[in-house]
């Protein structure tokens, strides 16, 4: 078998480019966002946690690994971790209450007992500590004890009260609940809250660390107190204090703890009350936005911040960097993925959070939310969030007092058609920013654009037409400023040279635009659609005339009523999303379903009707219900097979057939790693391969679809997996085909064994003949044609090796 494999490998064409995803497979992008959470150093590895994502770096090989639900973790949103040196096991707690145990080989053992516990309303895990082979968890309902060797819950107590902190001090388990610090014998049962004895009251405590048999280190916001404690007699006496700038760096088995001092030095605190200045903190580790860890803090530190993680080693006269600061590749920089916006080519995709919105609210209106935007290209992910942006509007400036000089409340992103390094950012309070290489290079606000001040200059959409004119959709209380166009020639100059009169506006015929304004340009017709998420405004359409460059002949109509194919008037409180398919039909999502305008140019005809999608009862009655009539459509995207991906607010993600008459696939929480509530905020079917990007409040998913964009020729056909071995499961995927290709699979003698039709530019072969039996070992030829027939004489576009 190996000889056959060796002889035939030369037949295989391997494309040295980014491979399409295996259909039906998942990838979860790790998140790098927000404040650093934790760093744990072990003899072999360094674990670090930020944005709810957990990473591992092998010290010897320097190999990096991200732990995500797609790679075997039992949950997302990591919140706490602790390492047992005796069991050589890392315990990781998640927002849901789930716990994973990870050994040094990366094997994950799920512990779902807390998450699945009955009669528990709040499963939050607040704190955790290890003591030998045992791990103690402080939770919103009590305490849980897990033995890391047996991997079992060995004790628990449901107290009906929030336990915030936990540590082990000798033979005692010490916890904090409310203002009270209490202790219970760690060997005894923990089921009743009455087993705890009072130690002291420290309402401001943010950390507890046991040192030795009778010493307790209580860490407050800016001071740490070492106390001698005997819960049996009630003794509590403070022995030493250290002014601290954060939590504990590390403790050792001899009863010593190291802390970052507020004076910029590292301090040791021993169980006997002795404190000493160990070393000066490196500049990179100073401040309250970093987390440091080490097994030997006097000589080596791992420093984690929003800018990355690095290792510093003590050297004469200071510290030297031994591991340069880095951020693991492939991360996205927002967890709440609300917008997935491609550029005109589809090669680059912007992934971002969103500020104020009527239908993407999490956890609230997100007013003043800092922009966190990722640019994805060829599988790489780069942080392009704007920096050093000073707000002009008083509302946005007020938010910046706490958020700092960053862009706030992002609403829409549009890439500059002349310069891929530049994008325009619409904000909910401060107008429009032009950002180049993350820096502000221009702005449009109330001084140089027709923007009304409604609790700030609220701009919800930006888009470019085919001539490079910049269209802006904003809040408007019945005026004409809601839709404005900046001609390309003016836009290409400095924003300081632009005046309000340079913008072209439209008579909106009394429409009042609120939040989530959308301005969408059809590419296969000269129609631009405008709507917001406040249904009474209706649907507006702009006839762009013969050319996009001439704005003087554009005219706008407002459709306050939409009549469907049955003559029924369609009304909704929210229009939400829009997409144009490969035939030029326009698909609009709303609260209450999906409407389709098959002839966009016909919207200017008073008798125009829309098509509302329906779902058949399949009971022989011929009756049907409106599709998603009781749900909110949050986004729509068209894949390479002209099928429609429809994201919803509470029922997951649908893949519809090209005409919308059939649900080809329905993805809900039982299949999708991050959809615990079935809310999908955004979806985008890639224009370059079969990847479907799915935005959720818990992060970004990538799903392997069964269609990809068609190619212009057969010059870059890809086959995977190839070769097909006995260990291979699933279908063989052929991509890079032309639109709807007829594909035949033939054996070496030229006999056709199977045939099918591509979805867009992709086809799946089940490695079977037309009778449904697995084919024999050998080389098989992929014959493809965009016409009605294909023969071996036309030539093979790819070869597949099958080894049984």
From TrEMBL:
<protein>
    <recommendedName>
        <fullName>PorZ N-terminal beta-propeller domain-containing protein</fullName>
    </recommendedName>
</protein>
<dbReference type="InterPro" id="IPR048954">
    <property type="entry name" value="PorZ_N"/>
</dbReference>
<keyword id="KW-0732">Signal</keyword>
<dbReference type="Pfam" id="PF07494">
    <property type="entry name" value="Reg_prop"/>
</dbReference>
<feature type="domain" description="PorZ N-terminal beta-propeller">
    <location>
        <begin position="46"/>
        <end position="184"/>
    </location>
</feature>
<dbReference type="InterPro" id="IPR015943">
    <property type="entry name" value="WD40/YVTN_repeat-like_dom_sf"/>
</dbReference>
<dbReference type="Pfam" id="PF21544">
    <property type="entry name" value="PorZ_N_b_propeller"/>
</dbReference>
<feature type="signal peptide">
    <location>
        <begin position="1"/>
        <end position="19"/>
    </location>
</feature>
<dbReference type="InterPro" id="IPR011110">
    <property type="entry name" value="Reg_prop"/>
</dbReference>
